[in-house]
Amino acid sequence: MTRPRAREFGLRIGLLDPGPHNAITDVPGVMVGHSTIIKGDGPLVVGKGPVRTGVTAVLPHGRSVFRQKCRAGISVINGFGKSVGLSQVEELGLLETPILLTNTLSVGSALDALVEYMCIQNPEIGITTTTVNGVVGECNDGHLNDIQGRHVKREHVFSALASAAGGPVEEGVVGGGTGMSCFGLKGGIGTASRVVSGPGYTYHLGALVLANFGLVEYLTIGGVHVGAQLASLGYGLAPPEPSRPTAGSSGDGGGSIIMVLATDAPLESRQVKRVARRAAFGLSRTGSFASHGSGDYVFAFTTANTLDHFGDPSALRQEALMRDDDPTLNRLFQASAEAVEESILNALFAARTVTGRDNNTRQALPLDVIEDILVRHGRLSR
């Protein structure tokens, strides 16, 4: 049975309107693909399972990203993470590969496959031109998944990349989100978008998140602090795990989230980074405070004014960059916060209950309970 997204449930997050699919793919050219790996049940046998993991790919456009690089920016809210490729994006302000999202211990295998994919597309890499900077984000799905088994392989990365498409995006228990937890409940992939328009222009901003953070007590939905009431009913309260370290555990409200932002607004890289920073406000509205054990990262890019790797003169005609004092930039900041908040809620609303290794279970967000709470607080009407 398909679960409703937050907006279908009756929630309106923010003031700006979403795009037609309310997804990152509302930014023209952006595509998303998933590869989901679910195998086995019962006790953990490292290397065999149970497996609850996968990989999600975000492609900025349908051309070679190496040849047509996107202006990009990175914002690290709290750096307890193992993502790769960030330093070059930070230094140069350019993205030159698709973005992959997977589990923490599969970053290496995902990166290796991404490099192979890029070299097939661009055989000159490392031979007659520069090498390539692959970008892979991660969260820890070890509560449900045989994470040491590193089950994400070349074929899964290639499948996610090959299946990437525009239009509606599958959410919840899919791709890199298959084994993820959020606020002590089942988390995963979520997405949303906003449209910013005015006389003579229409821009889109979309977000896609890999949500894997927080304790149930902190959860806030549409401005209503629902977490304490969920906890009092026993939702999201996993039994203690023996010998669990404090740093990076869910015991400190930690976990991680990767937020990917895309826009078609004509921004320079510094401005893209400014938009990325505003994602923190959307994250905080759901109840996160970016604890010591969180890996909270924002990867952002614009599809406007791509830069040709070889300096093709025919590719140099570009749209005028937006001024910093243009009021439209403020609305893109607003769009960033709104789209991230709704993406996280969509990840929670879409995810179903999953049982994984050692019979560990993450419950789905109980929609009937959430409806009762939000109705009582005047946030929803029946």
Describe the structure.
- With 382 residues, the protein is of the alpha+beta class.
- The chain has one domain: L-amino peptidase D-ALA esterase/amidase.
- It is 23% helix and 27% strand.
- It has eight helices and 16 strands.
- It has helices at 86-92, 107-121, 154-163, 227-232, 269-277, 279-285, 327-350, 367-376; strands at 31-39, 51-59, 68-79, 94-95, 99-103, 135-139, 181-182, 185-186, 188-198, 201-213, 220-221, 224-225, 255-263, 294-308, 354-355, 361-362.
- Strands 4-3-14-13-10-9 form a six-stranded mixed beta sheet.
- Strand 5 (99-103), helix 2 and strand 6 form a beta-alpha-beta unit.
- Helix 2 (107-121) packs across helix 3, helix 5 packs across helix 7 and helix 6 (279-285) crosses helix 7.
- The longest helix has 24 residues, at 327-350.
- The radius of gyration is 20 Å and the shape is globular.
- It starts with 30 loop residues before the first strand and ends in a 6-residue tail after the last helix.
**How would you name the oligomeric state of the polypeptide chains in this document?**
single chain
**What share of residues are in beta strands?**
25-35%
Rounded mean pLDDT score: 94
Largest sheet data? 6 strands, mixed
Q: Could you say how many structural domains there are in total?
A: 1
What is the CA-based Rg, rounded?
20 Å
Which superfamily, in CATH terms, is the homologous superfamily? L-amino peptidase D-ALA esterase/amidase
Query: The CATH topology, please?
Result: L-amino peptidase D-ALA esterase/amidase
| Top-tier CATH class | Alpha Beta
The secondary structure category is: alpha+beta
- How many β-strand runs? 16
Q: Please mark out the parts with pLDDT under 50 across 5 or more consecutive residues, or reply none.
A: 240-250
| Termini gap | 21 Å
Helical fraction: 10-25%
Neighbour order of strands in the largest sheet: 4-3-14-13-10-9
Can you tell me the overall shape?
globular
Helix-strand topology string: EEEHEEHEHEEEEEEHEHHEHEEH
Query: Would you identify the CATH architecture?
Result: 4-Layer Sandwich
